[in-house]
Amino acid sequence: MPALRLCGSSLLALLALAGCATRPDATTSGLALPAQFQQSRQPAQWPDPYWWRGFNSNELDRLMAAATTGAFDIASAAARVRQADAQARIAGAALLPAVSGGLDTGRRQTGGGNRRTTSYDATLSASYEVDFWGLNRNNADAAAFAARASRFDAATVMLTTQASLANTYFDILSTREQLRVQTENLEAARRILTVIRAQVAAGTATGLDLAQQETLVAQQEAQIPSLRQSISQSTNALGVLLGMPPEQVAVAAGGLEQLMIPSTNPGLPSELLARRPDVLYAEAQLAAANADVAAARAALLPSVTLSASGGFSSAVLGTLLRPEAQVWSLAASLTQSIFDGGARRGQVALSEAQAEELVIAYRRAIVTALADVEDALVALRETTAQEALRQEAATLAGRAAGIAEAQLRAGTINLITLLNTQQSLFSARVSLVEARLARLQAAVGLFRALGGGWQQ
């Protein structure tokens, strides 16, 4: 009992001095945030968690649901979260005593005779490293911050996969629309070719006129195979995002004109940083690095370990649990590295340099997030205006082409005028489809810049 009291008193004294433990530095970026975004002064309207539903596409909803359960990147990110959680449990175990028990029996012979003895032992041992300088606590905190960072990384992967899937889906619809437009252009060119052939037969058009229109028909027809190729390749890319073989991927028919552009507005820059998982990932990584620095500094100081064991030992199994068979021991040790070739101080320098790098990465993540929102706001505004202008241009070009075709049949214009009118119409139709795709992808870019619908 006196030994137990002495050991307990020593432990209490050590714990009372635990306030000397090395603490990690505060996690700050040191950046001054702007008061508001340059491209938007509207009240905040954050994206819905299911932001893609605002595009009014049941097929996109189906694809998003399939990606949630089948995407390779999302599954890999989830596995990394489980790994980080396991590492946190491993690191946290050092804060608790290690306890082990054993049952032993042995038989030995001594001397040259036949004297043999048997022993029976039952023991319970415990050891505990007093975290006097905070080494184990800082290691556990670093692992906990790393586990937290893995969750932010998984959220970033989820958002990236969703944005890529939406953009790929819109690209497929856009290319299908371009293929439809190109087919209509080809039909219009062939219709004019029929008129010119009739005029050549009647002597009112020349062979040059016929050759020029045949060239235009061939040019329009030559663009169709590349569009079909693009549709197939985009569908294959969609399969990779969904985690499905290309043969199992099917995208239902749909048109760009059926899609809607959901509205959203950013709030304050400070609010944005709490909604961007990539920024929070960088912050958690920096916090983990600061804890690593504190742990490396604590490793320079002595370590204190307490150990105790107790049990029973007897030569006869029947008397093993009697009081006189009890055995116990208590021990305390103080260990200090005297010479390690500078390895521990090198570890401190390494941890500090890594933390400095992560401060820069944290700042970069913040500035990148702000720039992403500004870029996305500009892109959505300008692509919306561009689509409206190209819609007007396509309407005017279609009206001009109809007039030119009627005048050609009446023989009041030459073929050069008609060719120019056709080329303008064909170009305007394709440009309109491209403008619609750009606006849809700009909307996706804004949702992604705002952190999607993710919240802590």
From TrEMBL:
Database matches in PROSITE patterns: PROKAR_LIPOPROTEIN (PS51257)
Mode of membrane association: Lipid-anchor
First-listed, main subcellular location of the protein, grouped into a coarse class: membrane
Keywords, alphabetical: Lipoprotein, Membrane, Palmitate, Signal, Transmembrane, Transmembrane beta strand
Localization: Cell membrane
UniProt-listed Pfam families: OEP (PF02321)
Leader peptide range in chain numbering: 1-18
Gene3D superfamilies: Outer membrane efflux proteins (OEP)
Family affiliation: Belongs to the outer membrane factor (OMF) (TC 1.B.17) family.
PANTHER family per the UniProt record, alphabetical: BLR4455 PROTEIN (PTHR30203:SF33), OUTER MEMBRANE CATION EFFLUX PROTEIN (PTHR30203)
Record-given protein name: Efflux transporter outer membrane subunit
